[in-house]
């Protein structure tokens, strides 16, 4: 779907599940495990949520103390996210005379057109959830700090279906993470009530030496 179509869907609140859903269970599991395994005093950790939608994962991460950058091509989705951040008092400022800012930095950018540049070795956690753009995996991986994690969830085909622009074949997602430590892998029915199609899930850690 083109971005304008997503804007219209968000404007009409057709994706009501995005506005009320809890964070993806895998985000909660992986982010909690990552933070618990680190030495106290190292926080705040930095997270990048690509194709964030209305921000259910970004909001939860910010509430846990993460510094979050949330990116989506839909300006309407980002405006909804900013409104929700305000309602939850996820504000930083004003600081040094600047206007009020948020613990979530929001960016409107078309990822397919490369409008958002992922800083290398900058993010402790990168999330790409329920969004498939095959050429995004490599820049996203480069953006993870050594020892950091990338969380990916993608829809996969059902028996008899072929892979397409929005679905991978079973076993394909893991192939994008050769050389990384796989902390979690699963394929099958989505554990997320907001999604019904089968999915592949990966949590992979970038090698410290890379």
Describe this structure in words.
- By secondary structure, the protein is of the alpha/beta class.
- It has one domain: 3-Layer(aba) Sandwich (Rossmann fold).
- It is 27% helix and 24% strand.
- The protein is built from seven helices and seven strands.
- It has helices at residues 3-11, 16-20, 25-36, 56-63, 75-87, 137-142, 172-175; strands spanning 46-50, 67-72, 104-108, 123-129, 144-155, 181-188, 199-205.
- Strands 3-2-1-4-5-7-6 form a seven-stranded mixed β-sheet.
- The radius of gyration is 17 Å and the shape is globular.
- Residues 93-101 have low confidence and may be disordered.
- SSE pattern: HHHEHEHEEHEHEE
Strand order of the largest sheet: 3-2-1-4-5-7-6
Secondary-structure-based class equals: alpha/beta
Choose one word for the global shape. globular
CATH class category label: Alpha Beta
- Biggest sheet descriptor: 7 strands, mixed
**Number of structural units classed as domains:** 1
Mean of pLDDT? 87
Annotated CATH architecture? 3-Layer(aba) Sandwich
Distance between the termini: 36 Å
Q: How many H/I helical runs?
A: 7
Helix content: 25-40%
At the fold tier of CATH, the topology name is: Rossmann fold
Gyration radius, to the nearest Å? 17 Å
- The overall strand count is 7
CATH superfamily: Vaccinia Virus protein VP39
Pick out the low-confidence regions. Answer: 93-101
Proportion of strand residues: 15-25%
């Amino acid at each position: 779907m083109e971005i304008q179509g997503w804007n219209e869907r968000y404007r009409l609140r057709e994706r009501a599940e995005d506005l009320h859903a809890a964070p993806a269970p895998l985000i909660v599991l992986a982010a909690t495990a990552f933070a618990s395994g680190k030495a106290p005093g190292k926080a705040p950790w930095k997270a990048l949520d690509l194709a964030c939608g209305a921000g259910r994962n970004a909001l939860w991460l910010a509430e846990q103390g993460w510094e979050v950058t949330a990116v989506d091509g839909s300006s309407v989705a980002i405006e909804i996210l900013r409104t929700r951040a305000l309602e939850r008092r996820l504000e930083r400022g004003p600081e040094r005379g600047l206007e009020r800012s948020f613990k979530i930095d929001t960016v409107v950018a078309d990822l397919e057109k490369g409008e958002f540049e992922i800083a290398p070795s900058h993010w402790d956690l990168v999330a790409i959830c329920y969004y498939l753009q095959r050429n995004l995996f490599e820049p996203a991986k480069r953006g993870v700090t050594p020892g950091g994690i990338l969380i990916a969830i993608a829809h996969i085909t059902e028996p008899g279906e072929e892979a397409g622009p929005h679905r991978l074949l079973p076993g394909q997602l893991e192939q994008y993470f050769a050389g990384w430590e796989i902390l979690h892998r699963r394929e099958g029915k989505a554990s997320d009530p907001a999604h019904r199609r089968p999915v592949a899930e990966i949590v992979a850690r970038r090698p410290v030496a890379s």
